[in-house]
Structures are given as C-alpha cells and as structure tokens.
Amino acid sequence: MKTVFNTDEDTYRYDVEMLVNSFYPKRENDDNIKTDMIQHLNIVIDKENNLISVWVEEKTDKGNGSISCKTEGKCLSCDKKEIKNTIKQLVYKTLSTYTGKELPWGILTGIRPTKIAMAVLEEGYDANKTDGQINKSIESLLKDYYYVSDEKTNLAIDIARREREILKSIDYKDGYSLYIGIPFCPTTCLYCSFTSYPIGMYREKADRYVDCLIKEIEVCSKKFKDKKLNTIYFGGGTPTTLSADQLKRIFAKIEEVFDFTYLQEYTVEAGRPDSITEDRLKALKDYNITRISVNPQTMKQETLDIIGRKHSVDDVRKAFYLARGLGFDNINMDFIAGLPNESIDDVRNTMEEVLKLNPDSMTVHSLAIKRAAALNIFKDKYKEMTIENNVEIMELCQNYAEMLNMKPYYMYRQKNMAGNMENVGYAKDGKAGIYNILIMEEKQTILALGAGAVTKYVFPYGGRIERCDNVKNADQYMDRIDEMIVRKEKFIDTCNMG
Ligand code: SF4
User: Does the pLDDT at position 98 exceed 50?
Assistant: First the structure.
C-alpha cells in the first residue's frame, strides 16, 4: 500500500495540487482553505488489488478523522500517465462532491486543451474517418475521460478545426518563424510577469539594446538561410516604446538579412496605446508590417488606473483610429476578464466599446496572477478588491465576438487563471494571427532573439523540441551578447545536424 500524499514518494503531487488549485482559484483568502484541503486529501494506491482510493479526511471536535466523499477506482494500465489520470479523475469526483462544483475543463490542468483535440483530429483524417466520426472520438475523450463540459468540448473542437485549416499553408519541415523581443514598456502593469522594464529608465540604453539585437539578427539569420521564413512577430514588452528611428533600424536589418519570399504575416505588438504615435506607425507601415495590436485590456478608466496603465480610455480610441487612418487593416485588441473590481457589467461596457471600434481580431484573456506580478507581491494592498471571472463572462465576450463576425481560432490556459477559464483568440476571416497558433501548437521552429527570448527548435519527425534561452535581464543581455550569440550558433548547428 502506498500513500501518495504525506510520504516522500509524492510522484503525482504536482498534478493533484494543480487540480486542487482549480477548485480553489487563487485568491489570498482561499490559500488557507487550499493548503488545508491538500493536507486533508488522502490518496492511496493499493498495488496488490490494483485499487486507488481518494477521500477527504477532516478532524472532528474529538480529534478523530472523519472520512467524507470517498471514491475508489481501478487503473486498467500500469502506465504512469494512466495512473496519473485515474488519480485525477478520482480527485475530481471527490472534490466535486465535497465542494458542489464542476470545473469547465474537468481534470485538464495543462495549458493547451486544443492539442488533445488536434491530435485526435489528425489521427482521424489519417485513418480516413468522417468529420462526424472524428467529432465523436474527440467528444468521448474530452467529456468521458477528461470530464470537460459540453461547451468547452465544442469550443476545443471548433478551434482545433480552424487551427488546422489556418496552418494548412505552413511548412513545418522547412519553414520557421522569427520572434523579436523588446523588453521595455511605458510603465509596469499590476499583473505583469513578463520581462519588461520601464522605458523611462532605459531610454539612454535603448540604442545599445538595438545594436545588440541587430548583432544577434545578423548572425542567426545566416544559420537559417536555407529555410523558409513564414511569420515574424515583435513582442515583449512593448516594441513601440522604441523610437521610430530605432524601430526602422531593426526593420531595415531584418529586411536586409532575411528572405521574405514565403512570409505570410508580419506582426508588431504595438500593445500599449500610450506608446503608439504617428511616426512609429508610419515606420511600421513603411516596412510593410501586416498586423498590429492596440491593447486596451479594459475600457473602464478606474481599472486602467488600478492596473497602472497610465493611459486613458480615449487614448485607446485615438491610437486605434490613427492606425486605421494610416491603412492598417489587421488590428488586434487584447482584453482581460477578471481584472480587479470589474463586474460582468464592466466587461459588457468594454465589449460595447469594442463593437464601435470594430477591430479585426481580439484576444480575451482570463487574468492569471503569477508569482512575480505586483498584484501577487503586494497582495495585502489589493485584498479588498474582487477578482471575478466565470463562464457567463466568457460567454458574453464570445457573443460580442460573434457580433463582430469573429470566430475563435486559438486558445491556451495558464496557471492561476481567474475562474479557471482560458484565453481565447477570435478573428474575422483571413485575420487570424498565425504566429499565435504556431507558438501554442509547437509545430514549427521559432528563432527568438532579444532579452528573455526562447528559441524553440522543432524537429520535423517525432515531436522532439529543443530550447535555447537568452538571459532575461536586459543589462545582462547587452553585457553578454557575444556569449549569447555563440551559444545560439552552437545550438542551431547541433539541431540542424539532427
Ligand atoms: S504591457 Fe504587457 S509586458 Fe508591458 S508591463 Fe503591461 S503586461 Fe507587462
């Protein structure tokens, strides 16, 4: 007999804790309940009888343990993954009875639910199955095995089908994408966990950062001269915190050293409205950037003030119309559900504003409170604020996306998301962000340059992926640029040899 919890052999502890977290979404007030629950959850694997038992044990007034919500099940295989999923199914049933809650994503705690749907879809097409048969296989896997709700199952199928269609023109074997990281922002948002430095403190050093980036671009481009560049994505940070001249230097170098013959998408995540100016947008237009983002996150001024965005709702409108006026016909907008003190009515008001702006795509994120974010570090300061996201709010956003003629095309999840929901990207026909799908599905190599950028080399067969990280710290990136470049050259050479 082996107890998974409260022993040194905590093989499945991480997965179980993730599931427990989903029942008790992260808020400071819940942390005690959560820790308490993990201590009182018992999981026992009886190998002799091939039986797994899960129950909650609470202390009574007399100090004895009282067992409640016990579930038992047999695992049909000795495979570790099967045992893990059986444990998760039993934990789910136990906690669902104990809390009276159902989770929209069932026992799925990973970040890419569509990957499961996509794998069944591809297997089905390889085996010449009909669409109906394939849908049935996905449904039975997601609903019966992973306990995913009907709505989320349909969403996952819908997105997997659309992703597959969009990625049809992408060459996984010889193609690749390029990511350029600019780690500066006007100010730091309350929930930010990315590599980002306030540009005010780095204005003097930004030229040196651009020099280093250009050096990395020059060397690494040579290593990919026989491959086909499919998409380029500038992210960060906020790329448009660089001046128009600095942006032009980078764009010009990219144009000089990369072959654009197979390029299908060139995105600059302009992002913060307080960084979007006419001269920067013109620089983007001059270098044929096809897709940009203007990210409000919310159209409620009080929330923008709370989250430290330092721009107004009107700045969002001005930046959007400025970009439209200059001819940008593929503009994305990012929003976050579950921001501090926002109710469903606030989200509805934001969506009404989006309707008026009529962007080409939008991504609805669920607030994820990461360890490094100020919202977590200074949690005492924000503990009176409510953080709420739920199925109703996500459905509301989905309805507005439909009104905008957008369809869901990519989705991912993160740890500690408000309401245990998901992030969904919606787009009008022909306006989906291809790079967004590629980074999630990990089907194509991404050459990533700049501070904190992670290059992922996807081998053409067998799903093997190797990673090479640049240092996150912007000063260290600049100081150690030669070392970064040598490391990356070696990494690419080794990968190219297989
Ligand atoms: S704009 Fe994005 S990267 Fe910049 S501080 Fe805000 S969350 Fe972080």
Answer: yes
* CA–CA separation, 296 and 317 (whole Å): 9
CA 308, 312, 318, 321 torsion-angle sign: positive
In angstroms, the CA 193 to CA 371 distance is 8
* Neighbouring-strand partners of residue 426: 362, 408
Residue closest to 114 by CA, chosen among 477, 443, 494, 472? 443
Rounded Cα–Cα distance for residues 152 and 467 (Å): 31
Entry field: residues in the chain: 498
pLDDT for 65: 65
Inter-residue contact 462 to 423 (CB < 8 Å): no
- pLDDT at site 431: 97
Instruction: Indicate where the chain has its CATH 3.80.30.20 domain(s).
Output: 170-491
- Please tell me the distance from the alpha carbon of residue 35 to that of residue 69, in angstroms, as a whole number: 18
In angstroms, rounded to a whole number, what is the distance separating the alpha carbons of residues 455 and 448?
Answer: 5
Residues 324-362 pLDDT 10s: 999 999 999 999 998 988 999 999 999 999 999 999 999
What tokens does 343 get? 């109710």
Q: What average pLDDT is seen over the chain?
A: 88
* 3-state SS class at 66: strand
What is the average per-residue pLDDT within 273-292? 97
Token code pair at residue 439: 């980074």
Single-letter code of the amino acid located at 372: A
Beta bridge partners of 66: 58
Q: What is the pTM of this model?
A: 0.89
pLDDT score, position 414: 79
Q: 26 falls in which pLDDT band (50, 70, 90)?
A: low
Which atom of ligand 1 lies at the shortest distance from residue 195's CA? 3
With a 6 Å cutoff on the Cβ, whether 193 touches ligand 1 is no
Q: Is 188 in the pocket of ligand 1 (CB under 6 A)?
A: yes
φ/ψ (deg, to 5) at 452? 75, 0
Q: Supply the CATH classification number for the domain 170-491.
A: 3.80.30.20
- 189 Cα–ligand 1 center, Å: 5
Please list, in sequence order, all residues whose beta carbon lies within 8 angstroms of the beta carbon of residue 190, skipping any fewer than 6 positions away: 306, 307, 308, 340, 373, 374, 375, 382
Pairing of strands 331-337, 291-294: parallel
Looking at ligand 1, which atom is closest to the CA of residue 237? 3
pLDDT of residue 403: 98
Instruction: Pick the range with the lowest mean pLDDT from 103-107, 146-150, 458-462.
Output: 458-462
